[in-house]
Amino acid sequence: MSANRWFATGNFFSTYKEEQRIFQTNLDRMVFVLFLTALFVWPLFFKLSNKYMLVIDNILIAVVAVYGLNLVTGYAGLISIGHAAFVGVGAYTLATFSQLLGDRHVVITHAWPLMILLSGGMGAAFGAFVGLPAMRIKHLYLAIATLSFQMIFQWVINSMRFFDQGQTVYVGRIYWLTGMVGRKEHYFFWYYVILVIVVLLGFGVRNLMRTRYGRCLIAVRDNDRAADAMGMHPGLTKVYAFALAGFFAGVAGALHAYLYRGVGIESFTLHQSITYLAMAIVGGLGTLPGAFLGPAAIYMLELQVEHLAEYAGTIFTGTMNLATALKPLTFGLVIVLFLMFEPRGIANWWRIVRSYTKLWPFRY
Amino acid sequence: MSYFFQLVVSGIVVGSIYALSALGFVLIYKSSRVLNIAHGQIIAAGAFITYALTVWAGLSIYLSFLLSILITFFLAMSVERIFLRRLIGEPIISVIMVTIGLMSIIDGLVYLTPFGTENFSFPEFLPKTPISFGGVSISWTQLVGVIITTMLIGGFSWFFKRSTIGVSMRAVSDDQLASMSVGISVPKVFGLAWATAGLSAAAAGSIIGNITGLNFDTLHAFGITVFPVVILGGLDSIIGAVVAGIIMGLIQQFAAGYLDGHWGLYGTADVLPYIILLIILLFKPHGLFGIHEIERV
Q: Which structural domain range is residue A65 located in?
């Protein structure tokens, strides 16, 4: 059958190959390409101030981290309350090199793509280790294992003199083909690096889900006994899910360290772990667009909350810092409300809008 | 040697409070299979309510203690009613994440009050001179704390063993469908489990607040330390929670007494429970008293 690449009603697939295409219609592909071009091109025309550029870079780094959290929580169905700690493992891998070799050593400034990969590897190793109890027990206990990893991680960093007890460990400026990346184009440069990584890893996740290794994650989530009967090893699959999540988190951590040119414990606390969870839930667990929409929505919300706190600070001259109170309050509310009223997240709105516009003016 | 016994005494004091707070956690888990991540925040809230009633409203401390556990009883019940009741039947993962959200909400609410940033301490209402025998001393607040804790734990055990509601709670934890068929209202039991958990958490929080002073960070960290305790005891065992609570208190005190200051270590009491937790999860995941599920996946 000559496939109708613009199909509108129903999904009729006659081969598995057709069903597993990355873009199901030409329209999908066109929209994606346009979106991607826009992402690559806009910084050349609009010059944002460093403050907002930093927010956008942060969103993209969070996208990388949320890919990982999405794999472990969304696709494999295991709660991870320690994702920020895995991000921290990546960042502190870099900090270790910086402390051992000096923050301007050639390994850090020139071989940074390797360092990012290495951080990912370290994250994966730690992820696999924390996931090890999965060989024997079910997911409730795993949530506690990740929580305890978070606590241990914070304690270790806070008490190690090697890492300045959680104070900032500096990481030097990096070199690109044209020489050192200076202060002016720092955020601009990292925007492109992170964007490329986001796109690559995004295709990585999408393609993983087309292979047996990705599908077995979903199979184990939906029914681990059935998955066992089908010949998968549920325990190993869970360990592997944690290792994957750790890899993504490690990469995000290294990017964070390079972007901020330093590593401090305050970016990898339990609070941050909850923020990542909020991003994954708000975006939509177990969906790829959700990994973009969640971080963007949460960072926008955070900006608005900060504005609101500043504004309220001018009216009520209280002693307390309103932002510290409002941030957890809004995040908590957002998590709870989304879980109660839209458990499938913003990605579901996107799906609804898409199917509505495709079929308009017909209902179905 | 008296140093050793001193550590034992303070370990038992801390441990009995762990036992009390773990009790509430286990209750919720037993009846509805929900890990209540926000337990530490409820503990802190209970302590703050007691303080507010004592100092700001000027009530006697015993009265405000009773009032506080009553208020938290209804607060926890309404939390269950508002947030968790409509999630019955949803995948358990989203229920647990709702408790994570709740934790964040209560954090935010506490930061809106002075308790979020400042430290308070309860007014002295007991004799200041500690009781000592043979070089081991225990302060009056600690002693009263242990007595109240023991009484509460005893009361809870009686409640589960003998009273109709307690028996129906145990029935629900055993088999929801079967207990529904004999006329037990499962949602009501869930609400009651949360309410009792809130009650015990508030009691634990007030006792800790009296012993160590009110600091939000230490108080809600107590709630996270409950995790190692319940894992050691077995997630669904009430006796396990009590025994493991005291073991964990002893371990923490010994770590603080013998490890800190050597080999450049400090604050080991804060991290040792979690290391133990990871080890238990690897080698004896159902804890000391937990039910072994045969299913192995």
A: 48-359
